């Protein structure tokens, strides 16, 4: 098994940039979401498969920090790692870097709560899921960038 986190590559679109010609800060929440959706795909197959297993997840906190701007047509990589596994909550980190030079762009830390999709009540993280969360997608590169 590799220590490399799952990596999702995507290209910055023109409409995602602001008047300063950099990616608008609010777009990073979208980038986190699409990157985590790829992680869910690696973990469960896809979102519907997670629901069929009686699980869903809700964001309770997101922190974003930026270190450099991203521009139109840049290829960004979102790298997902598990930072914490609690009883019903877990924290994922997404590090965004520019491809191929690995320039750090931004880092997000997102806290989720596992819930029952029917009641939306909190649900303990099953032991087998805990194990899979640590290894899901490790070493995998998923690219929507066309590089």
Give a short synopsis of this structure.
The protein has 147 residues and is α+β, with helices and mostly antiparallel strands.
Name the features.
6-stranded mixed beta sheet; 3 helices; about 150 residues; Thiol Ester Dehydrase, Chain A; about 20% helix; alpha+beta
Spans where pLDDT lies below 50 across 5 or more residues: none
Strands, total number:
6
Give the number of helices: 3
Given helix and strand content, the structural type is: alpha+beta
Helix content: 10-25%
State the CATH superfamily name: Hotdog Thioesterase
Strand order of the largest sheet: 2-5-4-3-1-6
Task: Specify the CATH class.
Answer: Alpha Beta
User: How many structural units, i.e. domains?
Assistant: 1
């Amino acid at each position: 098994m590799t220590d490399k986190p799952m990596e999702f590559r995507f290209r910055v679109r023109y409409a995602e940039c602001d008047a300063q010609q950099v990616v608008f800060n609010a777009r990073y929440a979208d980038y986190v979401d699409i990157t985590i959706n790829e992680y869910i795909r690696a973990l469960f197959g896809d979102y519907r498969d997670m629901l069929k297993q009686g699980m869903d997840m809700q964001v309770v906190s997101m922190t974003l920090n930026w270190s450099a701007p991203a521009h139109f047509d840049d290829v960004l990589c979102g790298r997902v790692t598990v930072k914490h596994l609690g009883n019903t909550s877990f924290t994922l980190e997404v590090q965004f870097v520019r491809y191929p030079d690995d320039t750090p762009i931004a880092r997000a830390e997102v806290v989720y709560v596992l819930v029952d999709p029917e009641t939306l009540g909190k649900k303990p993280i099953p032991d087998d899921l805990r194990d899979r969360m640590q290894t899901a997608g490790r070493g995998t590169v998923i690219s929507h960038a066309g590089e």
